[in-house]
Amino acid sequence: MEKRLLEYSLQQHWENIIGEQIGRHTWPDSIRHQSLFLIAESSTWLQQLMFLKRELLAKINAAAGSQVITDIVLRVGMVRRDAQPPTETGDRQPSDAVEPSLAIEVEASLEHIQDTELRERLRRLLMRSAAVISRRASLQTEPVSSASGRSMI
Q1: CATH number for the 2-76 domain, one of 3.90.1710.10, 3.30.300.180, 3.30.300.30, 3.40.1280.10?
Q2: For residue range 46-93, what is the model confidence (pLDDT) as tens digits?
Q3: pTM for this entry
């Protein structure tokens, strides 16, 4: 359980712990056997991070309050930007694209959760998922047009 809390904490505060420049191009994926599995955006970033491992370990362990991470395992992959805080440049709320019936279902499923922060986090997660469902449904019902303007369905 403690390992999962550390993973969550690192993911929530990643850029603050590691620095904005590195944080935007990496993601702390998981912790296993005292090793942090860190995703780098590209092989160039992975190479640079290899030289910075010692500094990264020091920052991570300082944030954790003890020497809980002994190694960093690097790999190239998709950096999860969705879990990072939205920017102030007018990010669209996922609820904008949600079908009303799905939004009602989300709200109904959350009404009994007492913890305000948990309820809001779950609302954002469920609304994001509902937006994806709504988007997929609209793509399946819209006819695809060819260059000549005729429907291809």
Answers
A1: 3.30.300.180
A2: 999 999 999 999 999 999 888 999 999 999 998 876 544 433 334 444
A3: 0.53
